[in-house]
Amino acid sequence: MPTVAEEGALGEEEQPPLSCSPVGPEPSLPAAPTEGAEERAEEEATALPQHTSAEPPLDQFRIRKFFVLRPGTLSQAVRDVEALVDGTVDGSVRGVWLMAEVDHWNNEKERLVLITDNSLLVFKYDFVMFNCEQIQRIALNFVDRISCGKFSFPKHSLLQ
């Protein structure tokens, strides 16, 4: 029986050596500069933030995490909720606060609170979409006690 080499196929020693002919520039070589490359490099250098730290500054972190801290957001929200105040029922606005409501599961909810001549108004406001989602009106004659002081977590919980 004839072998593969006898049928005309080239054996290992008869095969021509493989040669590599590069079609383009080798990957280790830098590409030739094109027109405007220096200008683009200067623009990119000025566009990059000057902060080279791995952690963003605290202010940038807060602005990204809390929508209310973005410039103009709180003033827009106050204008929106003041437009919802009924002057005949509530009277004129005396003060505005941004409060954080913390429930027993430690979930934080931001609320805009307005005090007027006759009412305490609590607004659930969406700072992303700029709309009021809920209004809670509490007549001031129903308020019998106001507590003020520092907020603190309990020292022990049921989980510890």
Automatic annotation (TrEMBL):
Residues 68-160 form the HSac2 domain. It comes from the Eukaryota. Residues 1-54 are annotated as: Disordered. InterPro entries: hSac2, Inositol_phosphatase, TPRG1-like. PANTHER family: TUMOR PROTEIN P63-REGULATED GENE 1 PROTEIN, TUMOR PROTEIN P63-REGULATED GENE 1-LIKE PROTEIN. One of its GO terms (cellular component) is cytoplasm. It comes from Champsocephalus esox (pike icefish). PROSITE patterns: HSAC2. This is HSac2 domain-containing protein. Belongs to the TPRG1 family.
